[in-house]
Amino acid sequence: MSGSLIQIIVFFVITALIGLLTYIKCRGHGHSTASETKEYFLAGGGLTWIFVAGSITLTNLSTDQLVGMNGNQMALLAWWEFAAVIGLIILARIFLPVYYHYQCTTTTELLEKRYSNKHIRALIGLLFFLGSSLIFMPAVIYSGSLFMINMFNLDLPLMYVATAFAVIGALYAIFGGLRAVAVSDTYSGVLLLVMAIVVVVLAMVAIDFDFSGIPAERLTLIGDADSPLPWQTLLTGMIFIQTFYWSTNQTITQRAMAAPNIKEAQKGVYAAAIIRFIIVPTIIVVPGIISYKLYGDINDAAYGTLVGDVLPDWLSGVFAAALAAAVLTTYNSNLNSATALYVCDIHEAYVNKKPEVAKLSGMVTAILTVVSLVMVPIYAQAESIINLLQELYGLLSMPILSIFIVGLLFNNVNPYAGISAVVFGVLLYSYFSFIHAPFELHYIHLMLVTLISCIAVALALNKLVFKQSAQWRGRLVDAD
Questions:
Q1: C-beta of residue 398 within 8 angstroms of C-beta of residue 454
Q2: Torsion of CA 388, 152, 59, 360, to 10 degrees
Q3: Which of 101, 337, 97, 83 is nearest to 234 (CA)?
Q4: Between residues 243 and 191, the one the model is more confident about
Q5: pLDDT at 147 over 90
Q6: What is the distance between the alpha carbons of residues 340 and 464, in angstroms, rounded to a whole number?
Q7: CB hemisphere CA count around 316 (13 angstroms)
Q8: H or E element at residue 471
C-alpha cells in the first residue's frame, strides 16, 4: 500500500471518528428549547471546565498559530504565548465575574447594560463581526489550506482546499451550534497537542538535537529594535493586546460564558492557561527554528514542509486529521461567534426581537462563508500571516478595549462619547499603520498610544461636549 494512500485512509478514519464522538456527545441537545438563543450560542450553559479549556485552547491554536508563528522561524514569538497566560488570568479574575453578574450572552451585551444604550452594543458587535469575517476566518482557512498543500505535496489550487474547509466548517456551525463546536474542539485539541509535541521531538532528532549554525537572532528571546517583537513592547501594548483578545473577544469569551456557573468557567480558563504556558510556546517556535536550519528562510511554508518530512506516513495522516479538525473548529468558532453577534446585537435589536435563531444563523453563516473565501487570495499575498493578523486587528482591538475600560471603571459616561472615541481610535490607528508611524514606533507601542488616546477622548467629550462628569466606580460590579 502506497504511503499517500495510507495517509488518506488514516486521515479520513480519524476525521470521521472525531465527528462521531462529537455527535454522540451532543445528540439530544436540540435548538427547540425554551431558550433557543442560549442553547445555540452558549450550549445551554452546559459546558464543563474540560470543554471550556479544550475549546478555548483549540479556538486559538490552529494553523494560523502553528503555521504563522513557526513561519517567523524564531524563538521570539513565544512571548505571544507567555503573555497570553496573563490575558487568560485577567479573563478569569476580572472579566468573567462581570459577564456572569450581568448574565451576558455576548461580550457586547455588557456594554449595553453599562451604558444603557443598544447602539453602542451594535457598533462594537459590528466591529467584532467584521474582524471575524474579514480577518480571522479568511486567515485560518488560508493557513490551513497552505499547510495541507505543503504537507501532502498536493497538486491542487489553494482555493479548492480552502473551499472544502469553509463548507465543512459552516456545516458544523449551522447544525451543531456552540455545543458541537466546543466538544469537537476538545477532542481535536487533545490529539493536536499530542501530535504537535511528537513533531517537536522528531524534528529535534532530525538535527541530532544540534542547534548550531542557526543565527543568534533566531534563538534569542530578547528582541532588538529591528526584530518583529522588540523587548520593550512587552512592557507597553502587549498586555493590553492580550486583555482585549482573551477578555473581550466574543470568539474566546463565549466558551467561558457557556459554563453552568462562574467557578466552572474559571476552572476551565485556568486549565487553558496552564496548557498555554507548558506546551504551546514550544510547539509554535521550535519547529520553525529547526526548519530554518534544514531549509533556510521559507516563511509560512516552514511548518507544513517540516511535518511532511519528519512524520512517517501513518502518523502524518493522524496529524493532518488533527490539523484539519483544528482549522475547522477555529473557523466554525469564529462563524458561531460572528453569527451570535449579528443575531443578538443587531438583528434582535433592530429587525426582529424573536427571530427563528437556527434558520437566521444558517443564513448568516452561509453569507460569511462566501465572504471569507473571497478574502483568501488577499492573505495568500502576505509575507507573514501572523504579523499581518496582529497589525490588522490593531485597527479594532484598542478602540474596542477602551470602551470596555471606560464602561467598567466609570459611571455617568455618555454612550456617544464612547462611540466617538472608538471611531477616533480606528482612524488614529489607521493613520499610524498606513500613513505615518510617529518616531517610527513599533505597532505594539502604537496600540498603547491608541488605547490611552481613546480613553482620554471619551472622557474629554463626555465632559466638554455632553456636559457629564464621569464618576470613578471603585468596583467592577454593582452591589446586588
A1: yes
A2: 90
A3: 83
A4: 243
A5: no
A6: 36
A7: 24
A8: strand 471-472
Sign of the torsion angle spanned by Cα atoms 404, 406, 412, 418 = negative
Where are the strands (E) in 96-201, listed by range?
Answer: none
Long-range contacts of 306-312 (CB under 8 A, 24+ apart): 306/70, 306/199, 306/203, 307/147, 307/151, 307/199, 308/150, 308/151, 308/152, 308/153, 309/206, 310/199, 310/202, 310/203, 310/205, 310/206, 311/198, 311/199, 311/202
- Block residue for cell numbers 497538486: 155
pLDDT > 70: percent of the chain: 90
**Of 436 and 424, more confident:** 424
Enter the C-alpha cell of residue 313: 506516513
Handedness of CA 201, 81, 446, 421 (dihedral sign): positive
307, pLDDT greater than 50: yes
The reported pTM is 0.85
DSSP letter assigned to residue 410: E
Cα(5)–Cα(11) distance, integer angstroms: 10
Residue 124, all three cell numbers: 462594537
Q: What is the pLDDT of residues 42-91, one digit of tens each?
A: 656 678 898 888 888 877 787 668 877 898 899 998 999 999 999 999 99
Give 226-234's long-range contacts (Cβ < 8 A, gap of 24+). 227/74, 227/76, 228/72, 228/74, 228/76, 228/77, 228/384, 228/387, 229/76, 229/77, 229/79, 229/80, 229/444, 230/442, 232/442, 232/445, 233/442, 233/444, 233/445, 234/79, 234/83
Say how far apart CA 223 and CA 193 lie, in whole Å.
27
- The CATH architecture to which 3-386 belongs is Up-down Bundle (1.20)
**Grid cell of 249 as nine digits:** 473577544
Predicted confidence (pLDDT) per residue in 377-400, tens digit: 888 887 666 667 767 777 889 999
Q: What's the Cα-to-Cα distance from 301 to each of 146, 219, 292, 304, 355, rounded to whole Å?
A: 7, 19, 11, 6, 44
**pLDDT tens-digit map of 410-433:** 999 999 999 999 999 999 999 998
211 DSSP assignment? -
DSSP 171-194: HHHHHHHHHHHHHHHHHHHHHHHH
Residue 148 and residue 407: Cα distance in Å, rounded?
Answer: 44
